[in-house]
Write a structure and sequence with these properties.
The chain has 124 residues and is an all-alpha fold. It is built from seven helices and no strands. It starts with a helix and ends with a helix.
């Protein structure tokens, strides 16, 4: 599996990642680090507790990481969550809708991790 095939498998935007990181070697380096990023576990825990401050912080961080890596769908979900809990913004979603967004983020993250693991196992 090539890096571009990985991006296709995980619904990522390889060209966007290349535009941000400029060098395929950097994309490879940073995409391999995604499974070990503890911020996703923090998002899930914050979602269980409906901890607005932690939801904002973790979702905002995920939005940045995933945006830079070209994982635009995951970045979009994280953006929805972070904007919901951005200090000063009125809440628009119910707790159930937020929980659904967190579940969507978790599913997309798991899909990305599975793809990355396959990419690594293929010896790339």
């Amino acid at each position: 599996m090539t890096l571009q095939e990985l991006y296709a498998a995980i619904d990522g935007d390889y060209q966007r990642a290349l535009a941000v990181l400029r060098i395929e070697k950097l994309i490879d380096k940073h995409i391999r680090r995604l499974p070990g990023n503890a911020i996703f576990a923090d998002l899930l825990q914050a979602g269980k507790n409906m901890d607005g401050a932690r939801l904002f912080e973790s979702a905002h961080a995920i939005k940045g990481v995933c945006g830079n890596l070209g994982l635009v769908k995951l970045a979009g979900i994280a953006s929805d969550i972070s904007e919901e809990f951005r200090p000063g913004n009125p809440r628009c979603m119910t707790d159930a809708e937020v929980a659904q967004k967190v579940q969507e983020a978790e599913a997309m993250y798991k899909k990305a991790v599975a793809g990355i693991q396959q990419y690594e196992n293929d010896g790339q």
